[in-house]
Design brief:
Bound molecules: phosphoenolpyruvate, manganese (II) ion
Strand order of the largest sheet: 3-4-5-6-7-8-9-10
Number of domains: 1
Number of helices: 9
CATH superfamily: Aldolase class I
Structural class: alpha/beta
Number of strands: 10
CATH class: Alpha Beta
Largest sheet: 8 strands, parallel, barrel
Shape: globular
Oligomer: single chain
Order of helices and strands: EEEHEHEHEHEHEHEHHEH
Helix content: 25-40%
CATH topology: TIM Barrel
Strand content: 5-15%
Length: about 280
């Protein structure tokens, strides 16, 4: 009988230690943007609507979150919707509105790219390319996004392990793009009260396993606005380098993810709490 083999051999080109893994004593990697660093001493908040809906909507949100101390503006122009009948995003027009919002506020723009063929177009507007949970293992997309040389916010697949997330980061790093931010956004479990189960364990685990900055998305992680601030506080307390937060001035009218979007009052209150938790950990916001 042949020997039992429980591991495939690594390719000849595999390094002794995967690039996403933290070497002994290796310092944190900082992602560098004109607006500042991610993964350094400062906790960073990237906030905005789930979807860019109109010029007025994105400008109103951008100026509010900027005034509250946000570092970046999030907003999908191309939306990965579960149903093909749901709003698919304002597309190229949305990218133009995002660029306007950056001009008027100076915020770093984070937006999702879903298609390898669209990387060039999205990268023209985005400061950070978001890879969504549904795309985490779209390897051609990871490679194409990496080659833009833009920083990449890589969301954990909703049914992926941390090891799989780190291998997806590896695809980006192997293209010579070192600017990767890992993002826990909740995983599928049997629990029904929340949309996803935010895996708080992922925060200290990823900080230990990897040198890359680790973000938390408690909006998708909970799916309900009333839980977002609590999980945001927990994530920062657990060592996250930043937050991705959905904000909408009128959540009940939002074209996507209104149920989990913070209104302005709730966002301002969360920012005050995060600022105090960051200070307790010798970080600032
Ligand atoms: C989003 O950020 O709006 C989004 C679609 O996120 P996820 O890919 O985590 O569902
Ligand atoms: Mn969303």
């Amino acid at each position: 009988m042949g020997k039992q083999v429980d591991q495939e051999p690594l390719g000849a080109s595999a390094p002794a230690r995967p690039l996403a893994r933290r070497g002994i004593g290796q310092a944190d990697t900082e992602v560098k943007l004109p607006q500042g660093l991610l993964g350094g001493q400062q906790v960073r908040v990237i906030a905005g609507p789930c979807a860019v809906e109109s010029r007025e909507q994105i400008l109103e949100i951008a100026s509010f979150v900027k005034a509250q101390g946000a570092f970046g503006l999030r907003g999908g122009a191309f939306k990965p919707r579960t149903s093909p009948y749901s709003f698919q995003g304002s597309q190229q027009q949305g990218l133009e509105w995002l660029a306007l919002a950056r001009e008027s506020t100076g915020l770093a723009v984070v937006t999702e790219v879903m298609d390898p063929a669209m990387v060039g177009m999205v990268a023209e507007c985005a400061d950070i390319l978001q890879i969504g949970t549904r795309s985490m293992q779209n390897f051609p997309l990871l490679r194409a996004a990496a080659r833009s040389q833009k920083p990449i916010l890589l969301k954990r697949g909703m049914s992926s392990t941390l090891e799989e997330l780190l291998y997806s980061a590896e695809y980006i790093l192997l293209e010579g793009n070192t600017q990767v931010i890992l993002c826990e956004r909740g995983i599928r479990t049997f629990e029904q009260e929340t949309r996803n189960t935010f895996d708080i364990n992922a925060i200290p685990a990823l900080k230990r396993l990897s040198h890359l900055p680790v973000f938390a998305d408690p909006s998708h992680g909970t799916g309900k606005s009333e839980y977002v601030a609590a999980v945001a506080r927990a994530a920062i307390a657990a060592g996250a380098d930043g937050l991705l937060i959905e904000v909408h001035p009128r959540p009940e009218q939002a074209l996507s993810d209104g149920r989990q979007s913070l209104d302005f009052e709730r966002f301002a209150s969360m920012m005050g709490q995060i600022r105090r938790i960051a200070a307790a950990l010798d970080r600032s916001l």
